[in-house]
């Protein structure tokens, strides 16, 4: 069942401006009388001509709504200077109402163009169906002609223009939820390494569970890649790294490690390098983003450590990769655990908890319960120490000076961090990142 209708009048040329009310009226009457859609939300997308003196987005179309009272309260006219701006505004309205199934009524010649915009601004969470805009007028069908240069085929230069237009619009948007904030460890020397852990503030993601500096896009979530890319650009500007030399682990909740410069595995939860200016990153939204730095051999790494990766020893696998690839001494390697779900909140089924209990009984609280509390941070530290990393070279929430603590519980701090455990499937993601300075 269609939940919303988008009527694209953006390309209506000047000589048809006076006919807009009639075009819209007939289209709305068709929706109401002949469609199986029951009182859908209707969004009309129009071009805001820079010379236009019209005031208000909807007032000039009200006369067209005479016979469609059931739609009147569910209709919004969105006027903008660009297709990207208008469509992104409509996306916000759809997300506010959690709508996902949309019928797009538009001129035939504009269909391929609109599909290109939608492919960039939406994910597969949404379903679109398209219908030609053909409005009866004096017993004839009137089709809105396509402006010069917008045809059915989209050459590469047209795609580049679309991408540029979207990027310019996103860059113009204000940051949400305050300034972009980066947490840094005092353990990692800042004269050699650039590093940090992100929080959820300072980006443009507006969906509550993704707001605002979400740094991961998924087909199962509502944040498209272009929005995450803009959040990353803002982070890179604030932190001082090059977003074009940015490498994030390909999460598989296992223990494979990628060596920069060698063949990249299909998936891996650890990554290491000794190349300057290359930024490595690991995501976390309860799982631990772990950073590694060797100031002697000037090598670094990042790892994503969830409960499965912790049990599989992904952190120690990353340390071992630095030793074998770059000649690092295990006693020189510094390890910092970023924000992650704490033992105060995190539970696992009893069978999984047994594995942590084998590492150390102190990693499990209420062991005899059906779902004991698990301390994946403590387990990570224990496995690192058993592997030869010095206790004083590991920073987590056990440090004496809590003013230096950056290993906060993500589930306990909804104002600062994303949490899959807390927010459900449409959750946002923060990252830990590190690079060797030039």
Note the main attributes of this structure.
acetylation, 438 residues, 5-stranded parallel β-sheet, Rossmann fold, copper ion binding, cytoplasm, 20 strands, 6-stranded mixed β-sheet, CNF1/YfiH-like putative cysteine hydrolases, alpha/beta, 27% helix, 2 domains
Explained architecture:
This protein has 11 helices and 20 strands. It has 2 domains: 4-51 and 58-135 and 152-171, Rossmann fold (3-Layer(aba) Sandwich); 176-436, CNF1/YfiH-like putative cysteine hydrolases (4-Layer Sandwich), CATH 3.60.140. It is elongated and about 75 Å long. By secondary structure, it is α/β, with parallel strands linked by helices.
